[in-house]
Design goal:
By secondary structure, the protein is mostly helical. The chain has 10 helices and no strands.
Length: 254
């Protein structure tokens, strides 16, 4: 029993060392991306703020309200851009860490599903930036008057825009969630179909919570989430629920 415990301890330590090594490489890649992106920080910020700049009144502009705000905003933007540049390396390190513990069938399916997930996330973020941002900001800036001038701060705009981008990107993961639930045997395709009406209502409740308080942006999130749920049902129909008893063992060390 003592030998078995020692072997288990060695395995845990080995996994922790492997995790540390993979995380270190991923962090180094992100910092390298940060170094590449930082010289272009003003251009990146100008691109990110373009939807707001287009609808601001002539006398309005972006401001910062404390001496360090602009500096830290540019740091955050550069770090985000660095992470995007390092995504291939980060994903490879993640794959290299988890792949040895997966079944052969899971390894074959994992990479296409991961690519689909990334594509859906960026599709959601792009949908938000190019379609929702202009309409939402036009609505919000419309509250400016002669006595109330619209002068957004760099920090607040960055936080608001990143929140929306992440919200739309995460919402576009609905097909992946449906496929995972069916694969794990937690729900069946028939169950997904039966819950259509609840998902339709829930999509618009979610949109009301995470988008600006205007009907246009809420509809622009609610309908895509509902349509993506329908796509998830179609894709899940091709997924075979996992047979836990007959499942093959993971290939150790592969």
């Amino acid at each position: 029993m003592a030998e078995s415990t020692d072997e288990r301890s060695d395995t845990i330590v080995g996994h922790l060392l492997e995790l540390k090594s993979r995380l270190t490489r991923a962090v180094v890649a992100v910092m390298a991306g940060f170094g590449i992106a930082y010289p272009f920080k003003e251009r990146i910020f100008a691109f990110l703020t373009d939807p707001m700049v287009r609808v601001l009144p002539e006398r309005s502009s972006f401001i910062f309200t404390n001496p360090a705000e602009a500096f830290f905003t540019y740091l955050k933007i550069s770090l985000l851009a660095g992470f995007l540049l390092a995504i291939p390396v980060v994903l490879y390190q993640f794959w290299a860490f988890v792949a040895p513990g997966l079944y052969r069938s899971e390894r074959r399916a994992f990479f296409p599903v991961l690519l689909l997930s990334i594509f859906l996330f960026f599709a959601g973020a792009a949908f938000s930036f190019f379609l929702v941002f202009p309409l939402a900001f036009q609505f919000l800036v419309g509250f400016a008057t002669d006595d109330i001038m619209a002068m957004p701060t760099m920090k607040e705009y960055l936080g608001f825009s990143i929140t929306l981008l992440l919200a739309f990107g995460a919402s576009f993961q609905v097909p992946i969630v449906c496929m995972a639930l069916v694969r794990l045997g937690m729900v069946g395709v028939a169950d997904l179909r039966a819950k259509r009406r609840y998902v339709f209502a829930g999509a618009f409740v979610l949109a009301a919570l995470i988008t600006p308080p205007d009907v246009v942006s809420q509809v622009l999130l609610g309908f895509p989430v509902w349509l993506l749920y329908e796509l998830g049902i179609l894709l899940s129909a091709r997924i075979k629920p996992r047979d836990w008893e007959a499942e093959e063992e993971p290939e150790a060390g592969s």
